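@channel sequence for tomorrow's demo:
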Amino acid sequence: MIKPLKFYWELFVSTFTLSAFTVGGGYVIVPLMRKKFVEENHWLEEEEMLDITALSQSCPGPIAVNCSVMAGYRMAGVPGALVTAFGTVLPPLVIISVISLFYAAFRDNAVVSAVLRGMQAGVAAVIVDVVIGMGAAAGKGPNYLNLFIMAVCFVAAVILKVNVAAIIIVCGVLGAIRTIYTSGKAKGGSA
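structure tokens (generated this afternoon):
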């Protein structure tokens, strides 16, 4: 799955730019990554990006790095994963290194504190947009089971205070059962 050098450069620039100019963490960078990889460059399909996002959330580590590594691997194998990982990790590494030199000045600066509080409001809006957009994509088609499961999980976690690990295990079992059922149905229907 070796690609031309130009492709790797475009992949690096895309992830580097997204990582450098995104404030708010993985839940903010993922929809921007989706827009870049799916809508603009057509490197991935919508379903692939949804799957990559779901897997990235369930893996340990930062979701932005997980998502970019999985997307890079899907597009260009191990070299793509390495390029996207480097492109995603490099900007925060440089920014944090520079900020750490001036930490005391930043910590006590009222203007910086106000700007960061303002950014928090923007991040909250982007996260709400992600939930709505990905929820709508998950609920497309005649089967609304995905939306129902999301709603039940939300109620269980937020209102009933069920442990998130238990919710993940139950959803994993439901997903396995659903996959076995649909694959068995597909085999039975094609005979």
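heads up for whoever presents: The longest helix spans residues 63-101.
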